[in-house]
What does this fold into?
Amino acid sequence: ETGSGKELVARCLHDFGPRAKKPFVALNCAAIPEQLFEAELFGHESGAFTGAQGKRIGKLEYANGGTLFLDEIESMPLAQQVKLLRVLQEKEFEPVGSNEMIHSDVRVIAATSMDLEAAIKRGEFRADLYYRLNVLPIQVPPLRARLDDLPALSEAILEELRSQHELDREALALLAQHAWPGNIRELRNVLERAAL
It folds into this structure.
Protein backbone atom coordinates (compact mmCIF):
# COMPACT_ATOMS: atom_id res chain seq x y z
CA GLU A 1 0.00 0.00 0.00
CA THR A 2 0.99 3.60 -0.46
CA GLY A 3 3.02 4.89 2.46
CA SER A 4 3.87 1.42 3.81
CA GLY A 5 7.63 1.92 3.49
CA LYS A 6 8.52 0.24 0.19
CA GLU A 7 11.32 2.69 -0.56
CA LEU A 8 12.68 2.29 2.97
CA VAL A 9 12.81 -1.49 2.46
CA ALA A 10 14.60 -0.98 -0.88
CA ARG A 11 17.08 1.41 0.73
CA CYS A 12 17.78 -1.09 3.53
CA LEU A 13 18.41 -3.84 0.97
CA HIS A 14 20.88 -1.50 -0.69
CA ASP A 15 22.53 -0.10 2.45
CA PHE A 16 23.08 -3.50 4.06
CA GLY A 17 24.10 -5.32 0.89
CA PRO A 18 27.24 -5.63 -1.24
CA ARG A 19 26.32 -2.54 -3.33
CA ALA A 20 26.12 -0.17 -0.34
CA LYS A 21 29.07 1.97 -1.44
CA LYS A 22 27.53 2.60 -4.86
CA PRO A 23 24.56 4.86 -5.70
CA PHE A 24 20.97 4.22 -4.64
CA VAL A 25 18.70 5.87 -7.21
CA ALA A 26 14.94 6.08 -6.73
CA LEU A 27 12.59 6.78 -9.62
CA ASN A 28 8.82 7.10 -9.27
CA CYS A 29 7.53 5.84 -12.61
CA ALA A 30 4.19 7.63 -12.18
CA ALA A 31 5.85 11.03 -11.73
CA ILE A 32 7.51 11.15 -15.17
CA PRO A 33 5.55 12.17 -18.27
CA GLU A 34 5.45 9.34 -20.81
CA GLN A 35 7.26 11.36 -23.51
CA LEU A 36 10.21 12.00 -21.14
CA PHE A 37 10.38 8.57 -19.54
CA GLU A 38 12.89 7.02 -21.95
CA ALA A 39 15.33 9.93 -21.61
CA GLU A 40 14.97 9.92 -17.81
CA LEU A 41 15.72 6.21 -17.54
CA PHE A 42 18.28 5.76 -20.34
CA GLY A 43 19.70 9.26 -20.74
CA HIS A 44 20.08 11.17 -24.02
CA GLU A 45 22.58 12.77 -26.33
CA SER A 46 22.60 16.47 -27.10
CA GLY A 47 20.02 17.26 -29.77
CA ALA A 48 18.33 13.85 -29.51
CA PHE A 49 14.94 15.59 -29.31
CA THR A 50 13.55 19.10 -29.01
CA GLY A 51 14.84 20.61 -25.79
CA ALA A 52 17.74 18.18 -25.38
CA GLN A 53 20.41 20.87 -25.26
CA GLY A 54 23.09 18.78 -23.63
CA LYS A 55 24.05 15.20 -23.00
CA ARG A 56 22.42 13.77 -19.88
CA ILE A 57 23.04 10.42 -18.25
CA GLY A 58 19.96 8.47 -17.27
CA LYS A 59 19.05 6.80 -14.00
CA LEU A 60 20.34 3.42 -15.22
CA GLU A 61 23.81 4.77 -15.91
CA TYR A 62 23.85 6.88 -12.76
CA ALA A 63 22.98 3.81 -10.64
CA ASN A 64 25.71 1.68 -12.25
CA GLY A 65 27.16 -0.67 -9.65
CA GLY A 66 24.38 0.21 -7.23
CA THR A 67 20.61 -0.06 -6.98
CA LEU A 68 17.82 1.44 -9.08
CA PHE A 69 14.50 1.53 -7.21
CA LEU A 70 11.52 1.78 -9.57
CA ASP A 71 8.45 2.76 -7.57
CA GLU A 72 4.98 2.40 -9.09
CA ILE A 73 6.45 0.16 -11.80
CA GLU A 74 2.93 -0.40 -13.14
CA SER A 75 3.03 3.19 -14.47
CA MET A 76 6.02 2.52 -16.73
CA PRO A 77 4.97 2.93 -20.37
CA LEU A 78 4.79 -0.38 -22.27
CA ALA A 79 7.44 0.73 -24.79
CA GLN A 80 9.89 1.38 -21.95
CA GLN A 81 9.03 -1.95 -20.34
CA VAL A 82 10.45 -3.66 -23.44
CA LYS A 83 13.65 -1.63 -23.19
CA LEU A 84 14.01 -2.27 -19.45
CA LEU A 85 13.57 -6.00 -20.09
CA ARG A 86 16.48 -5.85 -22.55
CA VAL A 87 18.65 -4.08 -19.96
CA LEU A 88 17.85 -6.76 -17.40
CA GLN A 89 18.63 -9.54 -19.88
CA GLU A 90 21.59 -8.10 -21.79
CA LYS A 91 22.96 -5.69 -19.15
CA GLU A 92 23.38 -2.92 -21.71
CA PHE A 93 21.36 -0.12 -23.31
CA GLU A 94 21.59 2.82 -25.72
CA PRO A 95 20.82 6.38 -24.58
CA VAL A 96 18.26 8.25 -26.70
CA GLY A 97 19.94 9.55 -29.86
CA SER A 98 23.08 7.44 -29.41
CA ASN A 99 24.51 4.45 -31.26
CA GLU A 100 26.82 3.58 -28.38
CA MET A 101 25.92 0.71 -26.07
CA ILE A 102 26.46 1.34 -22.38
CA HIS A 103 27.12 -1.57 -20.03
CA SER A 104 24.89 -1.56 -16.97
CA ASP A 105 25.65 -3.42 -13.75
CA VAL A 106 22.67 -2.37 -11.68
CA ARG A 107 20.35 -4.16 -9.28
CA VAL A 108 16.73 -3.22 -9.98
CA ILE A 109 14.17 -3.25 -7.19
CA ALA A 110 10.62 -2.58 -8.36
CA ALA A 111 7.62 -1.75 -6.20
CA THR A 112 3.91 -1.62 -6.83
CA SER A 113 0.69 -1.37 -4.90
CA MET A 114 -1.16 -2.99 -7.80
CA ASP A 115 -1.82 -6.62 -8.62
CA LEU A 116 0.54 -6.96 -11.59
CA GLU A 117 -0.83 -10.36 -12.61
CA ALA A 118 -4.24 -8.71 -13.10
CA ALA A 119 -2.53 -5.86 -15.01
CA ILE A 120 -0.92 -8.45 -17.30
CA LYS A 121 -4.34 -9.96 -18.06
CA ARG A 122 -5.65 -6.48 -18.92
CA GLY A 123 -2.65 -5.89 -21.23
CA GLU A 124 -1.32 -3.06 -19.04
CA PHE A 125 1.93 -4.75 -17.99
CA ARG A 126 4.27 -7.08 -19.85
CA ALA A 127 4.33 -10.65 -18.56
CA ASP A 128 7.98 -11.17 -19.56
CA LEU A 129 9.08 -8.12 -17.54
CA TYR A 130 6.99 -9.26 -14.58
CA TYR A 131 8.67 -12.68 -14.56
CA ARG A 132 12.11 -11.10 -14.98
CA LEU A 133 11.53 -8.74 -12.01
CA ASN A 134 9.73 -11.24 -9.79
CA VAL A 135 12.87 -13.04 -8.58
CA LEU A 136 12.46 -12.38 -4.86
CA PRO A 137 9.05 -10.91 -4.02
CA ILE A 138 8.76 -9.09 -0.71
CA GLN A 139 5.35 -8.23 0.68
CA VAL A 140 5.41 -5.05 2.76
CA PRO A 141 2.33 -5.28 4.99
CA PRO A 142 0.31 -2.19 5.87
CA LEU A 143 0.99 -0.61 9.25
CA ARG A 144 -2.35 -1.82 10.66
CA ALA A 145 -1.10 -5.40 10.14
CA ARG A 146 2.09 -4.78 12.11
CA LEU A 147 1.10 -2.63 15.07
CA ASP A 148 3.88 -4.25 17.11
CA ASP A 149 6.24 -2.09 15.02
CA LEU A 150 4.65 1.15 16.29
CA PRO A 151 7.09 1.74 19.19
CA ALA A 152 10.22 1.22 17.06
CA LEU A 153 8.82 3.17 14.10
CA SER A 154 7.68 6.04 16.32
CA GLU A 155 11.05 6.21 18.05
CA ALA A 156 12.89 6.23 14.73
CA ILE A 157 10.60 8.90 13.28
CA LEU A 158 10.95 11.14 16.34
CA GLU A 159 14.71 10.69 16.22
CA GLU A 160 14.72 11.61 12.52
CA LEU A 161 12.66 14.70 13.36
CA ARG A 162 15.25 15.53 16.03
CA SER A 163 12.43 15.70 18.54
CA GLN A 164 13.10 15.50 22.25
CA HIS A 165 9.66 13.96 22.80
CA GLU A 166 9.12 10.34 23.78
CA LEU A 167 5.91 8.35 23.63
CA ASP A 168 4.68 6.78 26.84
CA ARG A 169 2.60 3.59 27.01
CA GLU A 170 -0.66 5.52 26.96
CA ALA A 171 0.31 7.38 23.79
CA LEU A 172 1.42 4.16 22.09
CA ALA A 173 -1.87 2.50 23.10
CA LEU A 174 -3.78 5.38 21.48
CA LEU A 175 -1.71 5.08 18.31
CA ALA A 176 -2.43 1.33 18.19
CA GLN A 177 -6.19 2.02 18.11
CA HIS A 178 -5.97 3.90 14.80
CA ALA A 179 -6.40 2.03 11.47
CA TRP A 180 -3.53 3.96 9.75
CA PRO A 181 -4.94 4.08 6.20
CA GLY A 182 -1.97 6.29 5.22
CA ASN A 183 0.45 3.80 6.77
CA ILE A 184 3.91 4.96 7.90
CA ARG A 185 3.58 8.23 5.98
CA GLU A 186 0.49 9.05 8.04
CA LEU A 187 2.24 8.04 11.29
CA ARG A 188 5.15 10.33 10.43
CA ASN A 189 2.80 13.25 9.80
CA VAL A 190 0.93 12.66 13.06
CA LEU A 191 4.17 12.50 15.05
CA GLU A 192 5.59 15.57 13.33
CA ARG A 193 2.37 17.49 14.07
CA ALA A 194 2.49 16.36 17.72
CA ALA A 195 6.16 17.31 18.04
CA LEU A 196 5.47 20.77 16.60
Observations:
- Strands lie at 24-28, 43-44, 56-57, 67-71, 92-93, 102-103, 107-110.
- The mean pLDDT is 91.
